[in-house]
DNA sequence: TTGATAGTTAAGCATGAACTTTAGTGCCCT
DNA sequence: AGGGCACTAAAGTTCATGCTTAACTATCAA
């Protein structure tokens, strides 16, 4: 399994609407800190803190140019969360396939209660 | 854009390691509340609360059978987050493509500083 | 140099969320 | 019936974190 810490930090970062909004804005193109802050009803300092969170977990990269900082998305930053979600989805799919196979095998019982799987009660 | 509330609830739910662990366990197959609680160093009540969060945002479904509750993943539950992540990734890709095209067009300037894009400073 | 711009950092507050404890409810088994 | 099991609900506690204010640094422009 991939670095647990990284997954945790990414999901934590994405839990905040403001940080997702920043990421949405940045996925349209690079922007300075104050440009990113503009649409928000919060202090510049608060936005800076959000950016720092995004940067610490690798979702965003930035470089200081003159007195302004240009932020951009890290193109591979979302990979961890994408991988996690993808793995879950494929496992669930496999689960449903197994269930379907079992139902096709023995179409005897009540079809509305697919309790053919072990449930460890 | 898809329901903003749903996206928010899903990402919030996934921010908690315990809830991700529950989802991981459930993507292997259905399980009862106490089965889900077993590996955790926390009260059954706490786990119940986590399950309620997961259920409220549509990541998990459950049904009461006798005195136990059987939980299973909602196969389409992760779609919202998957879609959000996918959209970001495709936008970033498009962004990189545009940048590449611009660089190919005018290979004049310093190649290490791809500031050909507008940055609204 | 002076002033304004752009961001950074630290400290403190205040809300929310995770967890516990406690006290139930309903179901199953003997 | 009655004891125990599986869960639920409510209330309280504690701790994290998102936000603010305030003070500070570095850069640009006149």
Q: Could you give a short description of this structure?
A:
The structure is a homodimer. Chain A is mainly alpha-helical and about 120 residues long.
Core attributes:
DNA-binding; mainly alpha; Arc Repressor Mutant, subunit A; homodimer; three-stranded antiparallel beta sheet; 5 helices; 121 residues
What does this structure look like?
The structure is a homodimer of 121-residue chains. Chain A has 121 residues and is mainly α. In chain A, 55% of the residues lie in helices and 12% in strands. The first copy, chain A, contains five helices and three strands. In chain A, a hairpin with a 2-residue loop joins β2 (60-65) and β3. Chain A starts with a helix and ends in a 16-residue tail after the last helix. Residues 109-121 of chain A have low confidence and may be disordered. Chains A and B meet through α1, α2, β1, β3 and α5 of A and α1, α2, β1, β3 and α5 of B. The first copy, chain A, binds a DNA duplex (30 and 30 nucleotides) through α4.
Assembly of the depicted chains: homodimer
What's the CATH architecture name of chain A? Answer: Orthogonal Bundle
What is the number of beta strands of chain A? Answer: 3
Under CATH, the topology of chain A is which? Arc Repressor Mutant, subunit A
Cα gyration radius of chain A (Å): 22 Å
Domain count of chain A, please report it. 1
Helix percentage of chain A: 40-55%
Flag low-confidence runs of chain A: 109-121
* Structure annotation, total helices of chain A: 5
Averaged pLDDT of chain A: 87
| Structure classification of chain A | mainly alpha
The CATH superfamily label of chain A reads Winged helix-like DNA-binding domain superfamily/Winged helix DNA-binding domain
Largest interface (CB within 8 Å) is between: A-B, 40 and 40 residues
**SSE string of chain A, helix = H, strand = E?**
HHEHHEEH
> What is the level 1 CATH name of chain A?
Mainly Alpha
Strand order of the largest sheet of chain A: 1-3-2
Biggest pleated-sheet summary of chain A: 3 strands, antiparallel
């Amino acid at each position: 399994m991939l670095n647990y810490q990284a997954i945790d930090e990414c999901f934590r970062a994405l839990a905040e609407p403001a940080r997702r909004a920043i990421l949405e804005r940045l996925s349209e193109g690079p922007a300075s800190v104050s440009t990113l802050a503009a649409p928000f009803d919060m202090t510049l300092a608060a936005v800076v803190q959000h950016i720092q969170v995004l940067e610490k977990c690798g979702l965003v990269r930035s470089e200081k140019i003159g007195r302004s900082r240009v932020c951009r998305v890290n193109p591979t930053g979302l990979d961890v969360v994408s991988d996690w979600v993808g793995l879950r989805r494929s496992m669930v799919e496999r689960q449903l396939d197994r269930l379907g196979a079992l139902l096709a095998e023995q179409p005897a019982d009540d079809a509305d209660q697919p309790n053919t799987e072990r449930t460890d009660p």
